Amino acid sequence: MTVTDHPPVVRDALPPEPPASVAPRRRRKRNPATWVRGGGLSNLIFLAPMLIVFTVFSWSPIVQSVIMSFQKTNLVQPATWVGLDNFERVLSDPNLGTAIVNTLYFAFLALLFGFPIPLFLAVLMSEVKRGKGLYSALAYMPVVIPPVVAVLLWKVFYDASPNGVFNTMLGWVGIPPQPWLQSAATAMPSLVIEATWAAAGGSIIIYLAALISVPPELYDAAEVDGAGIWRKVWHVTLPQLRGVLFIMLILQIIATSQVFLEPYLFTGGGPNNATLTILLLIYRYAFQNSLGGDYGEATALSLMLAIFLGLMSWAYFKLTERWSTN
Amino acid sequence: MEHQLTTSVSSDAAGRRALIGDTKPRRKKVRKSLDDEADRGVLSEHERRRGGVRASMTGVHVVLFVGLVVAGLGPILWLAKAAVTPTQDTLQHPFELWPNGIDWANLSTAWNDVHIDQYFVNTLVIAAGSWLFQVLVATTAGYALSVLKPKYAPILNMAVLATMFIPAVVLLVPLYLTILHPPVIGTSLLNTYWAVWLPAAANAFNILLVKRFFDNLPREVFEAAKTDGAGPFRVFWSIVLPMSRPILGVVSVFAIIAAWKDFLWPLLVLPDPAVQPLSVRLPAVQSQTELDVFLAALAISTIIPVALFLIFQRLFLRSAGLGGAVKG
Q1: A271 prior amide bond cis, ω within 30
Q2: Chain B: nearest CA to A148, how far in angstroms?
Q3: What pLDDT shows up at residue A27?
């Protein structure tokens, strides 16, 4: 009778004997034939596609980006080490301040519009008894439209003439036509409205999933304590969503600090640099330079942005860690 | 690389990572939310029967429904209408239904004269290749890391996961230079689809999804197959792949949608208009195209993603709840 045939209680009481004492282990000789027979070769064959694409297109570019930020590279002459020159030049670029302020402004407006609206809609949608699938599908529709098409379509909507789509709609309720993308003051909010419209569906689906997992007993208990509808939302629903809300907040900060498509396609950073964002600035350094790409400056700036984003993620993990231990 | 260089307020490498912690349970819950009702929500049965609550819930329903139709469906319907409307009508009376008749010729002009046909095919080729390489890399790597488990698997696992912490923007320039001067081959990949397909395949999120799925497959099946004399290739092809259809569906949706949406990366590595996808060509042709034809081109570019969504709605919404990150 072997150890494993004992009933569970006995097995727990008696630690199994180490197999080494049953049959003395023989150290196998390492040679190519045993390696192949042991599955070493087939392991490598299955790993090869991943190893190749990750080495060439992920791991080595990551290392390269650190190296390049300390070099001067323009593809014509061989790269030379320049120390912190790239960082100094980026930090003294008057456009950097503008880009940072604009990106923060975009992130702020995106939070202002893009955080409460999907949450509010999701809470309402979760109370719908029939046809929830239809509601989810309608809400998700804008996410399915390719972003480039969405931006180009909204550019038509934002036509500043009184007959433009949005200006006509404003006319119905007696609001005068707006310049939308044409003026420095309204350009950024216009970008954010489109971005919020395009992304809200995804957030709604995530909130809906989280709302499903709120334990119904909590609502029952709140009712026993005499809580009304709003108090239930405030004291049960929102605290239960705290985790996913925080995740979405961090995600949105990380995404908005890399915003590129909207400013690039809507306004090209204009009018008068009012929508120049950090990523647009990186793109200009590297790919829109008449003197040839300044890859050093571009990688230096993206490295600084990445460090900021890394700090964000780190703070996020620290905070969630503290919350989960409390 | 994460292939999401076109960051709208949307997906991102770091974003995906944050949500993986609870992928497994969430997937089931999302499906539940779509198929059947939860036991209860904020409102109790008792409250639902109260007159005031009932009336305001009806009001909420109507507002919610109208709002979602206007915001979700409105722009698409307007685009469909504008695609077959003469330019002047769209400009002067954007909300009137064809005051001067329907102009079907917009669609054929866009398709033939603006060469949307060619860009459409380019987009299909890019999406198909990205899908193929992403599925190939994710399934083989997932199988090796989860089932074969060589001794060094944990190290590789860490190295793959670590790339999810790197924002895509860091890779932009060095990856572009890698495409210009790839190792070993010695010839530039610029203007070839390899430049889009291969970086897209280096997607850590896919590998993680597939590996987690494989981790939960019953080990007994593999053991039984092994005792029956099946080698690692046979087990992969005849047992693991057929069992992993659900997760392959999710990875496929992510891959195809991401390829259809990607803008910045193909813009950089495919400078030749003849090989560019729709997302890159549409902004470029805008200035030389009449508005009605351009709107027809936009409408044509939207058809495939919208059709895919309508057909595979459940899979899309499940994936959206799962990744959270691939909101776009």
Answers
A1: yes
A2: 6
A3: 56
Instruction: Pick A124's closest partner by Cβ from B64, B137, B321.
Output: B64
Whether residues B279 and A146 touch (CB distance < 8 A) is answered with yes
DSSP A25-50: PPPPP--HHHHHHTTHHHHHHHHHHH
The Cα angle at residue A60 between residues A65 and B13, in degrees rounded to 5: 75
Q: Decide: B41 and B321 in contact? Cβ < 8 Å.
A: no
Per-residue pLDDT, A161:
85
CA torsion through residues A273, A277, A280, A286, sign: positive
Question: What pTM was computed for the model?
Answer: 0.81
CB atoms within 10 A of CB A190: 24
- Which chain B residues touch A217 with a CB distance below 8 Å? none
Residues of B in Cβ contact (< 8 Å) with A213: 25-26, 29
B327 close to A (CB below 8 A): yes
B159 interfacial to chain A (CB closer than 8 Å): yes
Q: pLDDT means per 10 residues in chain A (326 residues)?
A: 41 46 54 78 91 93 90 76 86 90 93 89 85 87 92 91 87 88 89 92 88 85 84 87 83 86 88 89 84 81 90 75 61
B6-29 per-position pLDDT tens digit: 333 333 433 444 444 434 344 444
Cβ B12 vs Cβ A110: under 8 Å? no
Residue of chain A whose alpha carbon sits nearest to that of B326: A202
- Candidate from B32, B64, B71 with C-beta closest to A212: B32
Which CA distances in Å does B214 have to B164, B202, B243, B315, B323? 20, 19, 9, 19, 17
d(CA A53, CA A63): 15
Domains and CATH numbers, chain B: 13-39+115-323 (1.10.3720.10)
C-beta atoms of B9 and A309 within 8 A: no
Q: Which of residues 79-98 of A touch B (CB under 8 A)?
A: none
Report how far residue B102's alpha carbon sits from residue B100's, in angstroms, rounded to the nearest whole number: 7
Contact A247 B18 (CB under 8 A): yes
Domain range summary for chain A, segments of one domain joined by +? 32-84, 86-325
Which of B38, B145, B306 minimises the CB distance to A144? B306
Bridge partners, A71 (sequence order): A81
Chain A residue at shortest CA distance from B313: A137
**Within an 8 Å CB–CB cutoff, is residue A171 touching chain B?**
no
Q: How far is B186 from chain A (nearest CA, A)?
A: 13
For residue B61, pLDDT over 60 is answered with: yes
ipTM beyond cut 0.90: no
What fold does the segment set A86-325 form as a domain? MetI-like fold (1.10.3720)
Give the residue from chain B lying closest to A123, CA to CA: B42
- Max intra-chain CA distance, chain A: 91
Cβ neighbours of A197 in B, within 8 Å: 71
User: What's residue A3's pLDDT?
Assistant: 41
What's the Cα-to-Cα distance from B151 to each of A44, A248, B71, B155, rounded to whole Å? 12, 36, 53, 9
CB–CB of B325 and A251 under 8 A?
Answer: yes
Nearest to A156, CA basis, from B283, B98, B291, B263: B291
Structural contact between residues B234 and A42, judged by C-beta atoms closer than 8 angstroms: no
pLDDT in tens, B154-169: 999 999 988 887 888 8
* Amino acid present at A38: G
The answer to whether residue A163 neighbours chain B at the CB level (below 8 Å) is: yes
How many whole angstroms from its chain centre is CA B23?
Answer: 17
Summary mean pLDDT of chain B: 82
The chain A residue lying nearest B198, using CA atoms, is A53
